[in-house]
Amino acid sequence: MAVTNGNAAVVYRQSGGVGVIVINNPPVNALAKQVRLAIADLLAHAGKDSTVRALVLCGSGRNFCGGADIREFNTPDRQVRPMTRHLMNLVESCSKPVVAAIHGPTLGGGLELALGCHYRITHPDATLGLPEVLRGVIPGAGGTQRLPRLVGFRTAAEMITLGTSVDAATALEIGLVDRIAGEGDICEAAVSYAAKLVEQGAGVRRISEMEIDLDPVAGETVVAEIRAGLEKSARGMQAPFRCLESVASTLTMSFEDGWAREAEISEEAVASIESRSLVHAFFAERQVSKIPDIPADIARRNIDKVAILGAGTMGGGIAMSFANAGLPVTIIENSRENLDRGLARIEANYDATRKRGRLSDDDMAARMACIYDSTDMDAVAEADLVIEAVFEEMDVKQSVFRELDRLAKPGAILATNTSTLDVDEIAAATGRPEDVLGLHFFSPANVMTLLEIVRAEKTSKDIIATVLDLSRKIGKTGVVVGVCDGFVGNRMLAPYFRQADFLVEEGALPQDVDRAIEAFGFRMGPFRVSDLAGLDISWAIEQRRAETRPADERFSPLLGRICERGRYGQKTGAGWYTYEGRSAVPDPEIEALVRARSEEMGIERRDITDEEIVQRCVYSLINEGAKILEEGLAIRASDVDVVWLHGYGFPRWRGGPMFYADTVGLEEVVATLDRFHADWGDKWEPAGLLRELADAGSSFKEWDAR
Ligand code: NAI
After folding, report:
1. What is the location of CATH 3.90.226.10 in the chain?
2. Which residues contact 62 (CB under 8 A, 6 or more apart)?
3. Could you tell me the CA-to-CA distances from 316 to 263, 345, 437, 475 in Å, in that order?
4. Three-state secondary structure call for residue 101
5. What is the model's pLDDT at position 7?
6. If you measure from the C-alpha of residue 50 to the centroid of ligand 1, how many angstroms do you get, rounded to a whole number?
7. What's the 469 CA to ligand 1 centre distance in angstroms?
């Protein structure tokens, strides 16, 4: 077995009549320039070498190939021939059979490379897919042309437009691979497979020469069906439709023409704001756990046991998050009755998932077995982390924390799930404020991925690092925020909701506001969100806060009037809407209430455009977000984006409110805010930071990188 050619990034050896090309470009075997050049050379060499009867293409380390090299984006190296998309054709044009030996994550360009090969064998551990759509782009290296020819039009169109990946077994079932190897070395298995193919006289098998399985008419029907689905699931986005168009070209075009069309569509997608936004979201999520003044290698505390105080709505959901990750958790309540009610709710919750076929009996039992219970506060003594989720009252919280101070072991992390109270004040009830922080989960806590990690004045650095790691372990995205009313997310939500109220008083109906906001891309408009959360809860909070809130920050009295009618939202079948099942139906009774409110305020109702609705709601978010940054309550604008992507259904393909502001242009945002300020007064005054950045022609992105 001699190494005949290649460079450090690609190694070649020969095993009997089989030439083996090994990509060796850590960490993911991306197709950097030197990899592409070496593969091209080796293919040419093997083509001429009469002792080579077949080739195997495999990857060393963790996976087969990670596709195009992101480090090369925007550099001239990317353009060096063969470019990634040409490389796949070069592999395919080889005159000797080429077998792809797939293992590990083989996604995007990695799978496209495997599709350029003539045969595919996979390790059982592989994941295969073309998830480009999730980054706002399309598979641009032949993927939209080859996958449908190989696995069938419908399957390919669905996989590519949704960005779904499959495991090895499914890959075999749909014909994406020819075989699954055993657990051993995939490269060796591929060499045997290649030798067998030679023995059988199997020749090259080029996917580009295969026929698509549908005629244009039948294909068009499938395209229409998929498009209709995307219009619901991917409203407002472009990438899924671009993917569909590119896949659909296989119905009417030759491989060559479709391949050229794919390149054009791919270029448009790469240049789109949507793709920039999705890439921003991806990096924002990676950045969020880096805390400038906390060393990355700071020693973490061990978290093996968790205790939760309160088995209410939040306590139960939080306990489930830990149990789902296999961490033992003890729920403590003040009475057996409350405890049993809480546990029953957890069980019912799991059972509903089980009945939907998304949780096996065994997994449900394993999760329930992670949950212990007690009515004795002494049970916190063993916990490494205690999360308090009792009633939202300062006196109650402080007395709980005094008890915790007495009972919890030294070094235990003491967390409060408060959503509105001052974490510093809660910490002050203990003699160890350095061990106290806020862990603000969102409801339903077992589902929502956002976790605001509230760093109080005295919180020690190591516990921030510890809970950041822990959040990942329980499937949450932790964002470190400072102490202020509502922290980051809910503080921004307040002016957003206030605008929704004002819009309704000025002339819009709740359904108009929701429609405009949903067309912008939010999963739900503000009124549907309120109905889902329960109007009685907002009303109770509002009444409690009315004493301390300035008049111009209070909610509209409409909320109270709706509640007085027993309309608490979805759970009572009526709120801002009436509900037929889950669907919200506009209600004349609400319209009458809304109109009466305008009249009482002496407002002449006017038509309000969708554009104004979006600007007033979304720009109020941006302005509040800028104030939060100015006050140092979030570390980066991109952290604010992560809060909104994970906690509030902000459209990911717009990157988050702060990134969206960058894409609109901060100058433009400030000009609009100035106009609103002139019309409606001080609440609209642009934040100093926003104006400063706009005046300097800068952006939040640049501010983050400062
Ligand atoms: P809840 O009223 O459903 O549950 C509170 C539970 O705590 C009750 O079961 C009560 O019996 C128990 N409890 C009271 N005192 C206790 C004590 N000394 N020891 C043990 N258990 C005690 O309230 P929910 O909604 O779960 O809220 C809990 C906390 O989470 C509050 O601070 C709230 O602000 C916060 N939060 C609530 C969110 C929500 O959407 N519901 C979202 C984020 C935070």
Report:
1. 10-269
2. 27, 28, 104, 105
3. 50, 8, 20, 16
4. strand
5. 72
6. 75
7. 25
Nearest-atom index, ligand 1, CA of 315: 26
Q: Which of 519, 520, 516 is nearest to 508 (CA)?
A: 516
Catalytic residue IDs: 112, 132
Residue 200 phi/psi, 5-degree rounding, is -80, -5
- Is the CB of residue 547 less than 8 Å from the CB of residue 534? no
Written as one string, the DSSP assignment of 1-68 is ----SEETTEEEEEETTEEEEEE--TTTT-B-HHHHHHHHHHHHHHHH-TT--EEEEEESTT-S---B
Measured by CA distance, the residue closest to atom 15 of ligand 1 is 390
For the chain, 706 residues long, the average pLDDT of each consecutive 10-residue run is: 62 96 96 96 94 98 93 87 96 98 97 98 98 96 98 98 98 98 97 97 97 96 98 93 98 98 97 96 96 96 97 96 97 97 97 96 97 97 97 95 98 96 97 98 95 98 98 98 95 95 96 97 95 88 75 77 94 95 94 96 96 98 98 98 97 98 98 96 94 98 96
Taking only Cα atoms into account, the Rg of the chain, rounded to an integer number of angstroms, comes to: 29
Cis ω before 526 (30° cut-off from 0) = no
Ligand 1, atom 14, lies closest to the CA of 390
Instruction: Please identify, by atom number, the ligand 1 atom nearest to the C-alpha of residue 335.
Output: 11
**Given this model, what pLDDT does residue 552 score?**
66
CATH 1.10.1040.50 occupies which residues in the chain?
Answer: 489-704
Quick check: 9 and 28 in contact, CB under 8 A? no
Q: Who contacts 159 (Cβ-Cβ below 8 Å, separation ≥6)?
A: 129, 130, 147, 151, 166
Q: Return d(Cα 543, Cα 546) in angstroms, integer.
A: 5
CA-based torsion, 476, 477, 481, 484: positive or negative: negative
The ligand 1 site (C-beta within 6 Å) comprises 309-315, 332-334, 338, 389-392, 396, 400, 417-419, 440-443
What CATH architecture is 10-269?
A: Alpha-Beta Complex (3.90)
Query: 49, 2 in Cβ contact below 8 A?
Result: no
pLDDT for residue 2: 38
CB 642 within 8 A of CB 656: yes
Q: How far is the CA of 389 from the centre of ligand 1 (A)?
A: 4
* Ligand 1 pocket test target in 314, 335, 378 with most atoms within 8 Å of CB: 314
Domain 306-481: give its CATH superfamily: NAD(P)-binding Rossmann-like Domain (3.40.50.720)
- 417, burial (CB in 10 Å: exposed 0-12, middle 13-18, buried 19+): buried
Q: What is the pTM for the complete model shown? A: 0.91
| DSSP label at residue 384 | S
Report the side by side order of strands in the sheet with 385-388: 371-374, 329-332, 306-309, 385-388, 413-416, 436-441, 450-454, 477-481
Please say whether the structural domain 489-704 has been given the CATH code 1.10.645.10. Answer: no
